[in-house]
Amino acid sequence: MFHVEHYNKNSPTPSLKKKERNKIVPLSKGGQAWNNLNFKSMDITILEDIGFTKAEIKVYFALLEMGKSGAGMIISKTGLQNSVVHMTLNRLLEKGVISYVKKGRFREYYPQDPNTILEIIEKKKESFEKLLPEILAKQKPIEKNEAEVFKGMKGLKTALYDLIDDAQKGDEFLFFSFFAQNPDDFDEVYDFYKEFAKDREEYGIITKGIAPASIKDKFAGRKLRNITFVNFPIPTNISVFRNKVLMTPWEEEKITFLIRSRQLAESFRAYFYSIWSKK
To answer: Looking at 127, 157, 188, which one is the last position of a domain?
Structure first.
C-alpha cells in the first residue's frame, strides 16, 4: 500500500538504510557510475547555463533513464554521495522538474516532462524583462567619437540643424565665424547664417561668436551684442555645441564636417573663452 504526498520543500528528507548510508561511491566524471548514464555524447552545457548544477543534471538524467527510483538507486546510478543526492533532489523538487510519491517511510522520485525546463527558461526570461528597465536606467551612456561629411549648401544646412538637434533651452552655441578669402563669393552662406541665428534664438539657445573685424558688414541685420570682432588671427569656420564640432573649410571645396567628440568640443570651447574673456 502507498499514498501520494504533495511535495513540501520543508518536508524532512528520509534517511537511507544503514547499508546505503555507509556506501560511498567516488564522485568521478570518468568513473563507472558516470558511465552508467547514457548522455556522455550530449552537450549539456546549456543546462548549466540556465542554472542547473552538474549534480542536478546527473540526478535528473538518471531519473529520466530509470523512469522512477528511490534515492539509493540514484546514488548507485550517478556515483554521487548520499548527502549530495538528497540535497540535489530537494533542489530539483524546488525547480519543479521532478516529483515524488511516498511509499511508507521512503520516497520514490519521478522526472517531470523535460518540457518543464522550457517553462523554467520562460519564467527566467519574464523575470529578467521586468528587471531590464531598472538595469538600463543604471547604464552609463558611452559616447562614441564619429564624424559625418556633408557636401554643398544643402549639406551645410543639414549639418547645422543636426548640430543642434538635441538642443535644450539655455544650451550654449559658440562659433568662430565662417570666413573665406573672398567673402563676397559666399553671401548665400552668410544670409543663411542670419536665418539660422533666428532659429537658435527661438530654441532658447545662447549664442556667442568671434569673427574677424574685416567681415563685420556680413553680420548686418544680426544681433551683435554677443559677437566679438577681432583684428588678430583666429581659427575660423568652426561651431561648437555640446559635445559636437562643426567645421566648414569651404575655401577649396564645399565640404562640411560634423564631428562628435567631447574632447575636441571641450578643447575648442576652452580656446574660444581664452579669447572671449579678453574682450
So the answer is: 127
Is pLDDT at 30 greater than 50 in this prediction?
no
What pLDDT does residue 9 have? 44
Distance CA 193, CA 159 (A): 13
Average pLDDT over residues 27-54: 65
213: three-class secondary structure by DSSP: helix
CA atoms within 13 A of residue 261's CA, in its CB half-sphere: 17
Structural contact between residues 206 and 171, judged by C-beta atoms closer than 8 angstroms: yes
In angstroms, rounded to a whole number, what is the distance separating the alpha carbons of residues 80 and 275?
78
- Ordered alpha helix ranges (H), the chain: 18-21, 32-35, 45-49, 54-66, 71-78, 82-95, 115-138, 152-163, 187-203, 262-276
Q: What is the CATH number of the domain that holds 122?
A: 1.10.10.10
pLDDT at 40 over 80: no
Grid cell listed for 218 = 556680413
Q: How many whole angstroms separate alpha carbon 159 and alpha carbon 255?
A: 10
Q: Which residue has the higher pLDDT, 20 or 80?
A: 80
Q: Which long-range contacts (CB under 8 A, 24 or more apart) does 223-228 make?
A: 223/197, 228/275, 228/276, 228/279
